[in-house]
Design a protein that fits this description.
Helices cover 9% and strands 36% of the residues. The protein has 170 residues and is mostly beta strands. It starts with a helix and ends with a strand. The protein has 1 helix and 15 strands, in the order αβββββββββββββββ. Strands 3-7-8-11-12 form a 5-stranded antiparallel β-sheet, with helices on one face. It has a two-stranded antiparallel sheet with strand order 1-2. The chain has one helix at residues 4-19, and strands spanning 20-23, 26-29, 35-36, 38-40, 46-49, 60-63, 73-77, 82-87, 93-96, 107-110, 120-124, 130-134, 140-143, 154-157, 167-169.
């Protein structure tokens, strides 16, 4: 069976599971799901869904950190160390466009289906930064051209040790 058919219910159950603890037959409130931001080490700018769009296929970019919901993401752990990363404002997952394995493929938001191009593995550095690696391609989330500009595209690129692939997750 395809995961797509079950992605919506699975995500709904994951969200419910993170907000309720069940014990002794009674439910009690647990801490709300934690939304995180990702700040590019080289520029100090945040991972951002362009223009706060809720459209399928909206590009991920870097932008000055402003605290908007389009810069907050929920990390939903999966088996084997991977995770889905869900944009708070839209409920869509970070996705390598079209499941591409090409260098420079865009990172977009897309309805969550749990495919390998939506699964991310966190690789922490020794100094507290994080690389996000696409499970299907083994490539890292990268600010294109190591740009410092607002609106710089977020792409996948072969992993290296440069700061434009390192993120402060908080």
């Amino acid at each position: 069976m395809k995961l797509r058919r079950f992605a919506g219910p699975i995500l709904s159950m994951a969200l419910v599971a993170t907000t309720l603890l069940v014990g002794s037959g009674t439910a009690s409130a647990a801490p709300a799901p934690m939304f995180v931001t990702a700040k590019a080490r080289h520029s100090g700018k945040c991972l951002d869904v362009s223009g706060g769009s809720t459209n399928n296929g909206a590009n991920l970019i870097q932008w000055e950190c402003h605290g908007g919901a389009n810069q907050h993401f929920l990390v939903l752990p999966l088996g084997g160390g991977g995770a889905l990363i869900v944009a708070r404002h839209s409920g869509h997952c970070l996705d390598v466009s079209g499941g591409s394995t090409a260098n420079g493929a865009a990172i977009i938001q897309w309805p969550c289906h749990g495919g390998l191009n939506q699964q991310w593995v966190r690789r922490d550095t020794s100094d507290g930064q994080t690389r996000l690696v696409a499970r299907h391609s083994g490539k890292c989330v990268d600010v294109a051209g190591a740009s410092n500009s607002n609106g710089a595209r977020i792409i996948q690129w072969p992993c290296h040790n440069q700061f434009n692939q390192q993120w402060r997750i908080s």
